[in-house]
Amino acid sequence: MPATDHNGTRIAWRDTGCGETVALIHASASSSGQWRSLTAMLAGDSRVVAPDLYGYGETGAWSGAGPFGLAHEAALVEAALPAGAVHIVGHSYGGAVALRLALQQPERVRNLVLIEPVAFHLLGEQAPHEESRRLLRELRKVASQIAKATANGNYRGAMARFVDYWNGTGAWKRLDPMLQADLARQVPKIALDFWAAMTEPTAPSDYRRIKAPTLVLRGSASPAPARRIAEIVARELPRSSLQTIEGAGHMLPLTHPDVVNRAIVEHLSGCSASRRPAAA
Predict the structure, then answer these.
(1) Domain range 3-123+201-268, CATH architecture
(2) What DSSP character marks residue 64?
(3) 63 or 253: which carries more pLDDT confidence?
(4) Are residues 90 and 113 in contact, defined by beta-carbon separation less than 8 angstroms?
(5) pLDDT at position 33, please?
(6) Domain definitions of the chain by residue range
(7) Which of 9, 104, 112, 274 is most buried, most CB within 10 Å of its CB?
(8) What is the DSSP letter of 175?
(9) What's the pLDDT band for 167 if we cut at 50, 70, 90?
């Protein structure tokens, strides 16, 4: 994997194919490896750049130089990208990073695909609906439980709460013990990811500056906060559409890769229904 020094931290990324650049930004507790099947579909016609975010894959941990935020992850992704226009695909935490990057560099973004971006700040106190504020309280409770378990060294308990929240009760117990051990080691970064998504200062209306055609994907069986955030994002971005994958949960790129990858490829090639108004 290519790698470079970025503000004192080694960052790494996968770089495959040639053509227009497509950036793939992975979820929390994952890495660029999550995109293998999509990369295989895209690399024949595109240059696919998939970075490992801070603390994941082959990229080093956050340096601790000040409070952490989505802007730092967006700068990491930008450091891995070649010059020029780019298509961006982001899932979960990677979707929140993709939003931040598109906001910082709107002129560079040709197309945007956001798969349940966990832009938790969009459920903030300024949200007009009580339901959004209730969902934010739900997320804060989960984040608090993970942070408390992390602080007292119960990394397995913290990761079990994380995995079960996003994948359903019992998902953690079904994982191979070796995978459980690998995931538990990532807990400190999970806490940072929650912090970054919760404290992002961008107002919902600011995202209207992103003019790129955008496809927002969500699963019908995902946690309610993720489904609600997808609605808000699709409403605020002026050239967006919202598509729900029936029967899918939050990890839909991994559990439903055929339908998700097909929707992404169609959108990036301009063949999707991305010009339709977003669902409310």
Answers:
(1) 3-Layer(aba) Sandwich (3.40)
(2) -
(3) 253
(4) yes
(5) 96
(6) 3-123+201-268, 130-197
(7) 112
(8) S
(9) very high
